[in-house]
Amino acid sequence: MTAPWWTRSVVYQVYPRSFADSDGDGMGDLGGVLERVDHFVDLGVDVVWLSPVYPSPQDDNGYDISDYRDVDPVFGSLALLDDLTDALHDRGIRLVMDLVVNHTSDEHPWFVASRSSTTSPTRDWYWWRPPRDGAAPGAPGAEPTNWRSAFGGSAWQLDEATGEYYLHLFSRKQPDLNWENPEVRRAVHDMMRWWLDRGVDGFRMDVINFVSKHVEPDGTLHDGPPMPGSPWGDGSAQFMSGPRIHEFLGEMHREVFEGRTAFDGGPLLVVGEMPGVTVEDARLFTDPARREVDMVFQFEHVDLDHGPHGRYDPQPLRLVDLKTSFGRWQAGLAEAGWNSLYWDKHDQPRIVSRLGDDSPAHRRDSATCLATLLHLHRGTPYLYQGQEIAMANFPFERLLDFRDIESLGWAHEQQALGRDVAELLPGLRAQSRDNARTPVQWDDTRNAGFTTGEPWIAVNPDHTTWNVAAQRDDPRSVLAHYRRLIALRKELDVVATGDFAMLLPEHEQVYAFRRRLPGADPAELLVVCNVGGEPVDLDVLLPEAVGRELVLGNLPAPDDDAVLRGWEARVLSGS
Ligand code: TEU
């Protein structure tokens, strides 16, 4: 059986509000994407994943949808989205929409109707519960469970009019849909088919493993254990990958995807974002024989530098831990299923600052080293806007600099616990989602060519040096290296579908692995990456890596290949 098209493809994620602004209002929009569609051709990517552009109050930057069948005027129109779809298809590029169906906006008509009264016919489209144990609505401890919202505070919001609480795992303006109700699932499937009829080529499904909660037959939901650093509990075991998740995804596959194809007649692409998913579950979710999803976004590697108090309590990311995690995922999905491979995305800080070295001396080399490490793994690489030019974290100085509801929600929760802002800033500076949401740096002009207006979030001052224009024609640029990596995946079958074997699992600085595909040419690749600034003696550490043909390197060919230079990555052909 020939391997599916996405085994040799790369997906580019566009976060539209920060990509490019075509009308000068300071917000990125579809016109900006359309103007730069040839940037995707220049890179050689095969899919564009578009973060939400639907009508939304923008409480969570569009992940709070108030109308699933339109485009928010701030981004453009359905007609403009059709133009972008056509422009991408004309260039052989698929469009995958971001689908947020674990929750809607509280301004969605579905929720407005559901909250209108306890006897509303659609009351059961959302999770409504009375105060716990008959307590008075709004009384301390009256929340139905102790769950913390991802954005701080209780995951339950009291609706004064009816005296009941509704569940919101994210912001209070993002009420969770109740997927136990078949009417909800039917409405979601219908909407998804509507988008496929418009010609989109698949979906990235937001926190899709949250749609099945662990709920008792009588509707009881259970508390979670205490959450360090928060007055609330950790409900994740109660709402992640619940008992009906495979049933719901199988039903969705039958009702929505069965028999459908992408614009070129090939298979659609269905990606499940699944915080907390295990390798064992992912094997079930992505096994083609089970017809659930094609691949998942897992979070193990991006949680490795979270301290005991979570994301904003960062600790150094140890390379050995990364190898253990990536190695487990490579082995776990080797026989069935498929990995998504990512560093950056709109919810994560920039990898060149997080694991690389964004100092002027090492930024280019560390970014291209980490790019090579990831792209040579088995799986589909995702490239987040700006990563192709090594955009780095932003030098946040004050709480006022941040826009992200998650960062600010955590900060306000911590301040309420008596912590001083000065104590919170280092964790926010290192880990805030806003690091990935500063405008893409197109050139060295004012606002980096992102907008002629006032950007909704500050442009990184380093755009005068780090921008697309400065890199496009430079063969040694980060951008040029990504072009070569993306081309290599198309060119070499061993990159696309070869097996994976981790080497040097205990080495704290060198990340090395082997790829093999018997019968391919080459049938074997050896990849060695020095994830650090100090040179390493390869002839001592990995003698088999010395004297091989260099297929692709991120530094000029070495005089002495027995020494692996600081931040050097080499892709070497077999024997
Ligand atoms: O994110 C899922 C999620 O778990 C987020 O809380 C995110 O991973 C977190 O920041 C990690 O610490 C998805 C979207 O990607 C995110 O932008 C949305 O805010 C969230 O769902 C709600 O829709």
The number of E-state strands comes to: 20
| CATH homology superfamily name of the largest domain | Glycosidases
CATH topology of the largest domain: TIM Barrel
Beta fraction of the residues? 5-15%
Pfam family, one: Alpha-amylase
Protein name: Alpha-glucosidase
GO molecular function, one term: hydrolase activity, acting on glycosyl bonds
InterPro entries: GH, GH13_cat_dom, Glyco_hydro_b, O16G_dom_2
Short description:
The chain has helices at 30-35, 37-43, 78-90, 109-115, 182-197, 236-239, 245-257, 279-286, 319-332, 351-354, 363-375, 405-416, 421-431, 468-471, 478-491, 493-497, 538-541; strands spanning 11-14, 47-50, 94-99, 128-129, 156-159, 164-167, 202-205, 269-273, 295-297, 306-307, 310-314, 340-341, 380-384, 499-503, 510-516, 524-530, 536-537, 550-553, 563-564, 569-573. It is of the alpha/beta class. 49% of the residues are buried.
Written description of the protein model:
With 575 residues, this protein is of the alpha/beta class. It has 2 domains: 5-105 and 182-402 and 440-471, TIM Barrel, CATH 3.20.20.80; 499-573, Sandwich (Immunoglobulin-like), CATH 2.60.40. Helices cover 27% and strands 14% of the residues. The strands form 5 sheets. Strands 9-8-7-3-2-1-13-12 form an 8-stranded parallel β-sheet, covered by helices on one side. Strands 14-15-16-20-18 form a 5-stranded antiparallel β-sheet. Strand 10 (306-307) and strand 11 form a beta hairpin. The longest helix has 16 residues, at 182-197. It is globular. The structure holds 1-O-alpha-D-glucopyranosyl-D-fructose (TEU). The site of 1-O-alpha-D-glucopyranosyl-D-fructose (TEU) has 13 residues, from loops.
